[in-house]
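Notes from the 1:1 (GR / supervisor)

We went over the backlog. Supervisor wanted to see one worked example end to end before approving the batch request, so GR pasted a single chain during the call. The sequence is below; no edits were made to it. Supervisor asked that the structure be written out right there so they could see what the output format looks like.
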Amino acid sequence: MSETDPNTTDVIVIGGGTGGYSTALRAASLGLRVVLAERDLIGGTCLHRGCIPSKAMLHAAELVDGIAEARERWGVKATVDSLDWPALVATRDTIVARNHQGVAGHLRTAGVRVLQGTARLTGPRTVHVEGAGEFTARRGIVLATGSRPRMLPGLAADGRRVVTSDDALFAAGLPASVLVLGGGAIGVEYASFHRSMGAEVTLVEAAGRLLPMEDEDVGRHLARGLKKRGIAVRTGSTLTGTELLPDGVRATVRTPKGEELVIEAERLLVAVGRAPVTDGLEPAAAGLAADERGFVAPADWSRLETAVPGIHVVGDLLPPPSPGLAHASFAEGLLVAETLAGLPSRAVDYATVPRVTYSAPQTASVGRTEAEARAAGVDIKVNTMPLAATAKGMVHGQGGMVKVIATADGAGGEATGTVLGVHLVGPHVSEMIAESQLIVGWDAEPADVARHIHAHPTLSEAVGEAFLTLAGRGLHQH
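Structure output shown during the call:
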């Protein structure tokens, strides 16, 4: 803070989620004085209501699935006697608490002044924080207020029968049946989790396939894997009515053929996306305006700076092409902090941000889909490698695939141009996507990747084989 005015600082960050605290930490490491205002808990949605707790629960689900596989496929006579829900929740909450303490500790060590309270803009360089007063930023203000689950018009969550993804995390127990509305990443993950825990699950998506923003083959392979596990997947279907019952919900769903299905479940989980949070922020006081969806768009994407000089935006408050993913907000925070410090920094390359769905099977993608490449008029070569064609893929027995899209610049349509996209479906592919991110981000050619040796037997050698084939050197594909 200023020696003469403790409420004057270099940077004010509003919001302590992944985008906000990464901005604060990087700015502080560059010698800037930082105030971070958060009205809830440091770590935001990702740490407390999203990425971390949900992945902890999905790990528990993976363990349950592993016991079933051991018994049914490998002759290991193991069974799950019961599920101790309070113990699962306690482990999950311990992991969250440790991460929360770690982030808070990093901020303290870095010298970031953290204020607990709602912050609102009062001008292009001033912020009022509830309970702490008015603050002035010499360098700039960073808006990182995050998002919350969207609800459908006329449908209200009661935390028991109709729930959001937030509610589902903190429910008192598990339902015997659940209707999941929304086939994006969040809906798919929760459908997968509840099925692993023994629930009867119906997954409804209005688009013609699951994960509609992903490659068509990803959605097809994912749906196949979920159906194999006993999840009723209904794509191209819409919710047309709901009736609350004493112990659940009766929903009416219209199928692509116009049929009306009545589905009863103990819980209706609504996962139709997330909405940016601007309530209480008062952007108009600083000369800003949110769009009709609630996003605050930057005027300069290379700096994530709004039309008001010195006010930057990171995280879920940004419209597309920002993908609303925690790891993208880390990169956005680094960019903005370095910009405020006067350092040169590259714009975030959203085309190389990996996208992961942590269901069973998992999906992971980076770069363009086949449809996007063709729509852009690019001459492409596509190769798809089934994971089951590899020894390790057979061991896991979950199916899946590797799909690579590259420009076809060579004679005869050979893929001698750059790699445009890589799409994976199968077990553990969330841990395999980093290689493909580098391949796409560095504009590698299939022949560049084909020179590198993948360990055998591994799932990742399917990636290597896909590139060997595109380079005209395939051993197991022709």
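Supervisor's comment: The chain has 13 helices and 22 strands.
Batch request approved.
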